[in-house]
Amino acid sequence: MAGQGIDRRQILRYIGIASVASTFPGFRQWTFACSHDEHAAVHAAAQAGSQAYKPLFLSPDHFHLVEHLTEMIIPADDSPGAKAAGVAEFIDFMLANRVAVAADGDARTVEERLHQGTAAQVQFEGGLNWLNVRSKSEYKNNFMDCTPTQQTALLEELAYKSKFTPTTERGREFFQMLRDYTVVGYYTSKIGLESLGYPGLRTFWQRMQACPHPDDPEHVHLSEPKSSKAAAAGSFSVLGGVRS
């Protein structure tokens, strides 16, 4: 819902989830996995086209679609958006390793969590296919071939209750899942943490890639978000929710 922010305890949980991915050396943009200097060098190389990220789970077409969708959810404004933060890479890695972001709290064993991760893979990939089928039905094109206005209209019916229809239930479930992954990936990147005024960046970033101190008393003093992007947890950005 518009104006709903991210609870700080959720941010710490997200950091714990993301620390699993931060040790993986294959990222090219997701800044939680890089130091400041490393990210600057990698970003420059990526801009030159010499170091393209190779998806582990998603097909190239699906990866580009996810990259576009995440940027629609958290676009660049006064600070970089989801694409610059490498959120699509984060999502691809988490799916490839069967890490479900919105995992059931009752799952206690490794087998149960992997089962959830496998279900997330199936649901996510099915959701991307559903979105293309829906866009073909409405506009005779795959989602990426639709106009920006058409793309926004397609996501509106998944994001807002007032536009829900019985035929979009599966799409709504996928959109919620995509938004969960996007928020986790963005707010565990250096870009996202900076937008929240995360104090650990000022003190630790140069020598620590992923915060291993979720109970650190310093976290109690997190400042208020510097960017309205924090509202992304509850709304769809290009429709006005994130930029409120």
What's a concise summary of this model?
With 244 residues, the chain is mainly alpha-helical.
Report the C-alpha radius of gyration, rounded. 17 Å
The tally of beta strands, per DSSP, is 0
Q: How many DSSP H or I helices?
A: 10
Overall pLDDT metric: 74
The domain tally reads 1
Low-confidence stretches: 1-5, 201-213, 218-228, 238-244
The end-to-end span amounts to 11 Å
Structural class: mainly alpha
Describe the structure.
α7 crosses α8. The chain has 10 helices and no strands. The chain starts with 7 loop residues before the first helix and ends in a 40-residue tail after the last helix. With 244 residues, it is mainly alpha-helical. Mean pLDDT is 74; it is low at 1-5, 201-213, 218-228 and 238-244. The protein has one domain.
Topology:
Layout: H1 8-22, H2 36-47, H3 60-73, H4 82-85, H5 87-96, H6 110-139, H7 148-159, H8 169-187, H9 190-195, H10 199-204
Helix pairs in contact: 3-5, 5-8, 6-8, 7-8
